[in-house]
């Protein structure tokens, strides 16, 4: 029943699912223009348990007006009390008073009444409304306009919600063109307890909001049938396995072919929300490392749009700013989404008039490596406050702004960049800093999506994520032997690189055909992207070319097949050719073994195992391989550089030959280098062959890259050419490791972090320099590192050295591009470490893989680097405690001059980017002793436009409390400080001061001060302060005060009241302080003396005479110190003083001429209110207040004017 239904709370998640499998209607913001409606509705009062409450009424259109809803033209509509309309058949939905998320379910049954699935309803504000309640407004309607622009208005006018007196005003307008609009006329219609949307059927709904509070008074929502225009314009899954800068490589999965391209060093990552993700490296320069979607915001998205994506930052959100989306081409006309340095998000757009509009969120506390779903929408429409920007985090709206714009975006806005800045100059409130993290599952829309659609975007879609298939590579040796089968290799490559080192995981098939000889097998099967076959030409003629062709792959690649002779020098082709010789050289890993590829090895290190140069020929009778050479022979050797294609300037490969059997060293020879494609030059090497033509050798290469070996020898071999030649397959030599040396400040000062007591190196987050060298195992530079076709880079990784148990900071610009290297050496000047303390650096191959040979494994850590100190301190305001020693209740809103107030704030040690340096902790790496620090407190007041300064000489600091947390504490790097101080009086009364701001400027032992200043306290340049107050906290009102005690008379047998007033200087005079309701005087603070006539010391009693008797000043009514009536019929006068100091001895005027030297009845404790002493005895405000109390003084005659006696 109605009275019980409010007790049933159904806990539904906001927008609990994406029910829009098919949605006939969508919406946009529209201009607000309230329409009157003159006709009052009469409710049916049938088929309902609550007539006039959960009820309906039917209105019929006139003059041939028809409204088309969901494809059907209607001449009437049913109005529902609970905030909606229904077309067509009555389903009983009007009885459903409890709103739910869409789709709405079938209505409750009622005997003899319709109850069917809910269809054809439009819901401007579905909640339990009761227009029948006393005092509630009603529902009216009216048909307006002339064809073809007629419209029908239905208005709920201040209608109460059930069982409340909360009125709701809104209306629905049905336009003749089939569109309709919801308008909201008061602030109560916020949507926080209603469902707003459209339901054609249970499978065709569009929900704008459910119990969300999205709406605002004076807003409007336009509903229409999308004609194909509102669409998902792009969907970037970032599932690619490699980016090379090829246009179109970043796939759009929406089907709209809005494919993007990698910019800079953006890459892909296996760490992802789904499958793979976009990886944006850290960067603080004007360079861009992003994906250019090539989707123009103006023409490709438009004046209404939305972008949603997942984001996983490499650092905590409050570590530094990060550009997430940017389409800005002119800094004065921005379009971007930025994560600000405090962790908040800001969306900024520019309209066609150049108006910049932004919305920002509150600070978000998000740790590093945490996936968060971000959504932004914009909807520009002409009209007052008709444009809207929204920001969502994990499906919840956390920021929104409405504005008055031209209704269209500025034409200068360009294509949308993901992950970094689009332009070389940061726009206002933007940044040049990259996203520094992972971005995944991004969707782009050309309309303002609903919260329901955004929630659907959050749903992680599980899918199989196979490496892509970019191309196939067919590889044959340039030269083959008729006596040996030659290996045919087919690779299914996931990257565009050639020859590829990353194969896909496909396991399909491909067909090989040959122009001569025998292929086995003809159909090859891939095993994780790799397949092999053998090609034989037994008994073939010398110098025969054989062509092998690749085709009929079971899985189609996205680019052309490639031929890679000897595994290098790849070119687009379907076939490769090898030349068969009857005699030649091959390399094997065993005596009389088959041809083998040399494995990857380390620069400067001799290959560990023996390899064999085999000189063989085809036998004349058996056609089997026989020795072509035996004994000692000088064979010509050469090495050829394949990647890089140009060798470094010296011959750096050494061949060591050995005697077969004994393996005694025979010769060690440096052989000739050759660039790729050049005519080969050789070096003779003394080789020893056994009777089967096997000559053992080892090699050492003092450089890096992919190389091949070539051999020839001129001899009579009995058949064919006298020149025996051959080549090895390509092999890789990788660096042994990397060194990090010559670490200096920008000024060239060397690092001394390894010293017993390291001094200051640089401030955290500021640049320092280092030399990175790619090394052989002999610690010699490898000159070709970084010259590869895709230049290899170096990743620098920091390791914490000190403080023990502290936090490892992040190293910015930690990837050194391969293009930075010259002769194996890169000098970098933009490294910056974001933490305090000591660390070391170690280099590895960027990406962990050098040309498919893996990482360098012998890198040593650098020397200890540091000491890094904070770049500065920042202050976060906390609380102000006025009149700090009094514990006022309620809290005081001001402080007297000479009286203590306390400032509570958080002092944070930060790096140059504003991020917290959490190792500024404990008692070693924090160099600011909070309790012993001079915070250089100063203040300034600007009341009435007059500047009054409070320099250090007019301030006293009574106490400083606080400490830096211990090393490793989660709160380390920030100290909670309480500073208790007083602003001192001047010689003459001044003030009042209503806008006093105070600031600090502490400096630690390393010279670290405030990171920024915002308070000029003395008009001296460079001597500023950092404010410890926020506008929302307010300023510190200060008052020059005094406590006034006045004389009083009383009858001898009655109590006596001495008027007590707390006063403050108003600029011209002392007046009652309207702010003081805290000053408190107790009996213990009173001194008595100068007893006259018959009064004695026993009459010096404060009334009532009970322990802890006290009086508190009240600015709204008179306040008195009440004294008890004298005893024993005594009368006379006594003097009273208030001891305002910290001791019981008063400083009143009664100590001067005619007064007492010491009180006859002294106070027992001081009031600690010396700030309220006044100039009662002269010019100096140093006196306690005093007054005279008199009992029984003759008051004089009655002053009779006329008297008459009657007898």
Please describe what this structure looks like:
By secondary structure, the chain is an all-beta fold. The chain has seven domains: 2-224, no CATH class; 232-458, Jelly Rolls (Sandwich), CATH 2.60.120.200; 466-581, Immunoglobulins (Immunoglobulin-like, Sandwich), CATH 2.60.40.10; 601-734, no CATH class; 737-868, Immunoglobulin-like (Sandwich); 872-1039, Sandwich (Jelly Rolls), CATH 2.60.120; 1041-1191, no CATH class. Helix content is 1%, strand content 39%. The strands form 15 sheets. Strands 42, 43, 44, 45, 46, 47, 48, 49, 50, 51, 52 and 53 form a twelve-stranded mixed β-sheet that branches.
Task: Describe this protein with a few key phrases.
single chain, Jelly Rolls, 1% helix, 3 helices, 12-stranded mixed sheet, 7 domains, disordered N terminus, Immunoglobulin-like, 39% strand, 1207 residues, 8-stranded antiparallel sheet, mainly beta
Structural class given helices, strands, pairing?
A: mainly beta
Radius of gyration: 45 Å
Roughly what fraction of the amino acids lie in strands?
Answer: 35-45%
Unreliable spans: 1-22, 1030-1034
Mean residue pLDDT: 89
What is the CATH architecture annotation of the largest domain? Sandwich
Provide the CATH topology of the largest domain: Jelly Rolls
User: How widely separated are the two ends?
Assistant: 88 Å
- The count of β-strands is 81
Envelope shape: flat
Largest sheet: 12 strands, mixed
In percent, how helical is the residue content?
A: under 10%
Number of structural units classed as domains: 7
Q: Quick one: CATH class of the largest domain? A: Mainly Beta
Helix count from the secondary structure assignment: 3
